[in-house]
Amino acid sequence: MIVAVVTAVAITQREARREKAAKEAEAAAAAKKDILVVGAGIHGLLVALFCRAQGFTVTIVDQKGVQHFKGDDRASGGLVWLAPNALTVLERMHEKLPGYLQEAACAAETLHYRRYKSGKSLSRTALGGGGTSTHCLALTATDFLDLLLDFTTAKLVLNTEIVEYKDAPEDLDGPLPHGRPYALAADGQKFYADCIVACDGNGSLARKHVLASAGEEGWPDIDTKWTVTTGSVLAAELGEHEKARKLVDKDRVDVWVGEGAYVSTVTVGGGEEVVFDAYDLDMQNEGELLLEELVEGWEGGLVHALSKAGETTSTRLKIRQKPSTLVSRKSRKVLMFGDNGFTFPPHSPHLEMSYHVEAAQTLAVCLRKAASVPLGLEIYTRMRNPRYARAMMMAQDRFNTITASAAEGELEAAELKWEIEPGRKEEAGPGEDGIVEGWWDYDAEKWADKNFEGVIDILTAELLGKQRAMAEAQAKAQAEVEAEAKKKAEGEQAVVEKGGQSREGDQSEDGDDDGEEDGDDNGEEDGEEKDSGSQTQGSERVEVVKLKHDG
Fold first, then answer.
1. Does residue 179 sit within a domain?
2. What is d(CA 368, CA 359) in angstroms, rounded to the nearest whole number?
3. DSSP letters for 319-355
4. Among residues 17, 60, 81, 336, which is most buried (max CB within 10 A)?
5. Are 416 and 402 in contact (CB under 8 A)?
6. Which region, left, alpha or beta, applies to residue 285 given φ > 0 means left and ψ of -120 to 50 means alpha?
7. Is residue 477 part of a domain?
């Protein structure tokens, strides 16, 4: 028994050493790879943050100047929701990051739905999760961007516009799979990298490049008919308005449900600021309403607060369709990420940013573990496809339901509701722990590490299957060629044999004809001779008779 235990411990330690050595080798290989991120927005900074954590050398290039990233007069940029599945991987990036997130965000435990005119409570939903975090965080896009900038250690190159991606075989600085593509800047600089991740947003140059590499055109954005107006109000500007000041209660989240519109308000900064997103449906394309027109007749505290908003931003929401590939088909080393690739339908804030946080972590792990960038991007795509399909299905269902009700002027809180549901425990089978992982329990880093080799096996099986199919197709084609050749040879042989038989038959017929002609000729001659003899004998008899008569 003791020997068995000691042996098991020794095996476990040996496997641990092997795993540690493998990770060290992967980290050393990653340190030799360069990642170029184009675009220093939230999605680009997420990719840079996770790739740096995996040991890559990362450079971020952005055409905007430093004034875009610093200053207190910037707009809020709207709300960003980080669900437990996003916080799970973000909080590993730096020991201080969770604290800064909590300080900047609203740590809401419940989401409160209210009637737009009276403010009467309609329902509540829990935002507690089953992951490492117990709730969602909501913060402004500007605050989230600032945090990511503070914690990234990537090289940042500003005031540099990328005008072209070059990744055709002749553009690489070496042969595939290790030759590097480059991004060409307006000033002529060439930014070479082992992998280029393009997060350059709307009007994306990378999107056009990737679609062209796949021979695709189109994929136009879809107008949702919805407009969102975003802004914020400082608590100090609300004055003594009693109902308005209730909006700045710490960690308060409200959704004000109108008949064909709704407004989300979130208190951030420990009660110092109220951030809002106002959604309005314009089915008849009559043009967007001004904010004060949209909330006219709504609850007094809300109207007062929104009237104090400073700079607001209105955006007509569109759905960017996901094309057949997010990776350039030329070198398979240029990836479009974030809004470049696709956008979710509106009304699913709990899905959007958290999905992209997951994706950035998965990308970094796949690039670290793969022997080459093309392989890493292929595995990344395979891993994300099921997750994308499920998230898009949930978002599309919500969008369809909410839009249909708003169009009828009958929007209800039940249609806007969303919540964070933890995984559930079920009766465990043999070798199972009985935990059914919920959507929010997903750990992108652990999942990618665990399933990487499984995806490799799938790709290998597919490759072998393709090779087998190609071999079978070639064998079938060769057999068809040989069968056709054989058929042709047999046909030619049959023609030759038939020709020989025909000549022999002709010769036989010629012999028969000659015999018949000879026989006929001889018979005719014999007859003629007989006839001649008969005539001679007859004349002699006549002469004898005549003589006798005369005598």
1. yes
2. 14
3. EPPP-S-SB-TTTS-EEE-GGGT--PPSS-HHHHHHH
4. 336
5. yes
6. left
7. no
Q: What proportions of the chain, in percent to the nearest 5, are helix, strand and coil?
A: 50, 20, 30
The whole domain housing 110 covers 28-465
Q: How many domains does the chain have?
A: 1
**Cβ atoms 181, 331 nearer than 8 A:** yes
What's this model's pTM, rounded to 2 decimal places?
0.79
- Work out whether strand 424-425 and strand 435-436 pair parallel, antiparallel, or are unpaired: antiparallel
- Does any domain span residue 425? yes
Give dist(CA 422, CA 439) in Å, integer.
Answer: 8
Please give the Cα distance from 460 to 368 (Å, whole number). Answer: 19
Answer whether residue 195 is part of any domain: yes
CB 22 within 8 A of CB 369: no
The full 3-state SS of 185-240, as one line of letters, equals: ECCCCEEECCEEEECCCCCCHHHHHHHHHCCCCCCCCEEEEEEEEEEEEEHHHHCC
Backbone angles phi, psi at 35, to 5 degrees: -115, 130
Return d(Cα 249, Cα 231) in angstroms, integer.
18
Q: What is the SS3 assignment for 377-416? A: HHHHHHHHHHHHHHHHHHHHHHHHHHHHHHHCCCCCHHHH
Query: What CATH code is carried by the domain that includes residue 377?
Result: 3.50.50.60
Q: What does each of the 551 residues of the chain score in pLDDT, given as a tens digit?
A: 554 544 555 556 556 655 655 555 555 656 689 999 999 999 999 999 999 999 999 999 999 887 777 765 566 678 899 998 999 999 999 989 989 998 888 887 888 999 999 999 999 988 764 434 457 889 899 999 999 999 999 999 999 999 999 999 999 988 877 889 999 999 999 999 999 999 987 668 999 999 999 998 778 999 999 999 999 999 889 888 888 988 888 888 999 999 999 999 999 888 888 999 999 999 888 887 889 999 999 999 999 999 998 889 999 999 999 999 999 999 999 999 999 899 999 999 889 999 999 999 999 999 999 999 999 999 999 999 999 999 999 999 999 999 999 999 999 999 999 877 665 545 545 544 444 467 888 999 999 999 999 999 999 888 788 778 888 888 888 888 888 888 888 888 888 877 766 666 655 555 555 544 454 544 444 444 444 444 444 444 434 334 333 43
In DSSP terms, 497 is beta-bridged to: none
Cα–Cα distance list, 368 to 137, 178, 191 (Å): 29, 14, 21
Taking the C-alpha atoms of residue 316 and residue 225, their distance in angstroms, rounded to an integer, is 7
